[in-house]
């Protein structure tokens, strides 16, 4: 097996992991709590976006999918945190989230297919606001110091780590995408590894919750 064939096979690792996660999620679905049911639906959205991105890439360019994905991901996480995680209103964070959504919509409306000029500001905004949501959760828990149990602490810590690393990866995107193929390979390999690890944690969290409540 050649190196290029190995790289191509690695590209299928992400949807394969998501598919396994969905099988586990829907198997335990009735036993899951609301948070882990929401995570299962999130995995389904990720799989749909992954497949759509591959279809667009096959016919030419999938950069537009990244913008749409950033919008969907941001809306999903804002809804998730305000529906299931936050106990306080966090109006400032909500205002920032709405501004982020509007900005990404504007990016989508003015999108032009130009790989060399393409910037991942939409994904950076998405990552930044998700990080803000997580930090707001930690701030909320610290303020409620009498609470003996910090629910969902591990989940939020992993989300914070994943989106922080994502932010670091996507900030120099335009610089990297116009450099050598070798640098691009390590860039996408790093994203693939951190993404798959994030998916595996979510799947483990679903499995553990389903086993406990079943």
From TrEMBL:
Give the top-rank taxon of the lineage listed in the UniProt record for this protein: Bacteria
Q: Which UniProt keywords apply?
A: Membrane, Transmembrane, Transmembrane helix
Transmembrane parts of this sequence: 6-29, 41-57, 63-82, 94-113, 158-177, 183-207
Q: What is this protein's record name?
A: Uncharacterized protein
